[in-house]
Design a protein that fits this description.
The structure is a single chain. The chain is α+β, with helices and mostly antiparallel strands. The chain is built from 11 helices and 24 strands. Strands 17, 18, 19, 20, 21, 22, 23 and 24 form an 8-stranded mixed sheet that branches. Strands 1-4-5-9-8-7-6 form a 7-stranded antiparallel sheet, with no helix packed on it. Strand 4 and strand 5 form a beta hairpin. Helix 8 crosses helix 9 and helix 9 runs antiparallel to helix 10. The longest helix has about 35 residues.
């Protein structure tokens, strides 16, 4: 049978036709279905699919599986496994038992996945070959359907370049500069080249804005809202507008374009395209890419929003805590009870330092103190939870190795004191000293706060004891004071006795740690 009514090419469409005679389906000689009432569905972008009435399916099917999918035109599909001699095929068949009106002709009928059968006999029927495999071209179709499943901007960039080349865009190089919200990097530059077929990622620091190469570049021009850039590089066309153009011409480039990729918050990012084709880019090529640019920009915005969220969370609450928040632990009370070594590191004499140095210089000293402490804590497997005024609260989770957590905390404390002493000797105009308290115990690690404002922190007696021990050591002139449960056999420590601490019900056996 020929399908006489060809579906419209423009727009999404579904056409269901009754097949004449007997249609049968086999898997390696095993009959799966055979019917005189089979139907074929033609759907935009999809391979024609044959549906069988359920009574004509002779194969063994499992009960309904957990999988279900939704199509706005056909409804919700339910799936079953195909049971074959000695094996089975997972989710091999589907059916729309409550099909939408557009697909009512296949309501309750059963379709088979391509991997479920090896042979199909259409009898005298002729299946129409559709030529509307996309709505508005293969790149648009890919952006609408497949691109969203790519997990990284690098993979998206490589796939986009390949799709553009498949559609006749003669790309030799493509780069995307997206600006970010990160304390240390200005953004990400994803560069694809035809020669390697791979994407290289650059993460320039904020110093890029002062670099001469950026100051006189298309990136700055476009990012500052000055419009796009188009330069033909072949023949006698001048290339002195931007230095990079001459470099590209020497590499064989014939055409160069830089166009804006706008984010929803108004930031202007940059898409650059280079061609080595003798005639460069056609008007059709560039018009097509320009039409797609808003959608392409949204993909990069999604990628960067996630990177920005991760970077900001790591910056403000730490890497481990940030990962937990991104993982969905965002409700008040979310958290775990863990055993951990807690370290409280306080800058000594900060008030006097501010008076002596002035606010600006004091802030530099404070940042140096935080940087030194945080780096050493992270190098020893701990995490800085927060800065409290001029103090650092850090946690070393025990997991399955309490001894290691204690050792990490002790080693961090000793290293911090030694490093601050080195800095003091290097900078003779002031001396940066600290008081450190460490305790070990069970704490709750998670969210506390109000409904509108949460803090990811540790709550428990160990945190309180660590802070009080730091204060006690500051009063006695000991840089590191720990509770007895921090010590392991062989640790060099000066006993301080049972110390009564503020808001701690029982005295705490405490020790001063010697620093090499």
């Amino acid at each position: 049978m020929n399908v006489h009514v060809k579906p419209e090419k423009d727009g999404y469409s579904i056409l269901i036709e009754q097949l004449n005679g007997t249609v049968s389906l086999h898997h390696d000689g095993v009959l799966l279905a055979q019917s005189d009432q089979a139907k074929v569905m033609y759907e935009t972008r999809l391979t024609p699919t044959v549906y069988f009435p359920p009574e004509d399916v002779v194969a063994d099917l499992s009960k309904r599986t957990e999988l279900q999918t939704f199509c706005p035109f056909k409804g919700t599909a339910i799936y079953r496994d195909l049971i074959l001699p000695g094996t089975s095929i997972k989710n091999a068949t589907w059916a729309y038992n409550e099909a939408q009106d557009e697909a009512s002709a296949i309501r309750g009928h059963i379709g088979f996945m391509p991997n479920a059968f090896t042979d199909v006999d259409f009898g005298d029927n002729e299946i129409l070959t559709r030529d509307d495999g996309n709505i508005s071209g293969p790149v648009i179709d890919w952006l609408l359907r497949e691109a969203a499943y790519l997990p990284t901007p690098e993979e998206f960039t490589a796939a986009l370049a390949a799709k553009l080349r498949d559609q006749g865009v003669y790309l030799s190089r493509m780069a995307v500069m997206v600006w970010s919200l990160h304390p240390m990097i200005a953004g990400k530059n994803f560069v694809w080249s035809k020669e390697s077929g791979e994407v290289t990622t650059f993460a320039p620091s904020y110093e890029i804005h002062d670099h001469p190469a950026y100051q006189n570049s298309p990136l700055r021009h476009v990012s500052n809202g000055l419009g796009g850039v188009r330069h033909r590089l072949s023949g006698s066309h001048p290339t002195d507008a931007f230095p990079i153009l001459e470099d590209l011409k020497k590499e064989g480039a014939t055409d160069y374009v830089a166009m804006p990729l706008r984010f929803s918050d108004g930031r202007i990012n940059v898409l650059t395209l280079t061609s080595d084709h003798p005639t460069g880019f056609s008007t059709e090529n560039l018009g097509f890419i320009f039409e797609c640019s808003a959608v392409i920009g949204r993909y990069y915005e999604v990628f960067m929003q996630r990177e920005n969220a991760q970077a900001l969370l790591e910056t403000y609450v730490g890497k481990r805590s940030g990962a937990r928040v991104l993982g969905g632990e965002i409700h008040r009370g979310d958290g775990d009870d863990i055993d951990a070594a807690i370290m409280f590191c306080d800058l000594r004499g900060s008030t006097l330092l501010e008076e002596e140095l002035g606010r600006a210089e004091y802030i530099k000293v404070l940042n140096q103190f935080f940087e030194t402490t945080s780096t050493i804590v992270h190098e020893n497997g701990g995490e800085v939870l927060k800065f409290i005024g001029d103090a650092v609260l850090a946690v070393f989770p025990a997991d399955s190795d309490p001894k290691a957590a204690r050792a990490q905390a002790l080693n961090s404390a000793r290293t911090i004191v030694a490093r601050l002493d080195e800095l003091a000797q290097e900078e003779a105009d002031h001396r940066c000293e600290c008081a450190i308290g460490i305790a070990y115990g069970g704490v709750t690690y998670g969210n506390v706060g109000s409904q509108e404002r949460l803090d990811f922190t540790v709550i428990g007696q160990a945190a309180n004891i660590a802070a009080r021990l730091g204060d006690y050591g500051k009063a006695l002139g000991h840089p590191i004071v720990v509770s007895q449960d921090i010590l392991d056999e062989g640790t060099h420590a000066l006993p301080l006795g049972a110390v009564a601490l503020h808001n701690v019900s029982k005295p705490v056996e405490s020790f001063a740690i010697s620093v090499p």
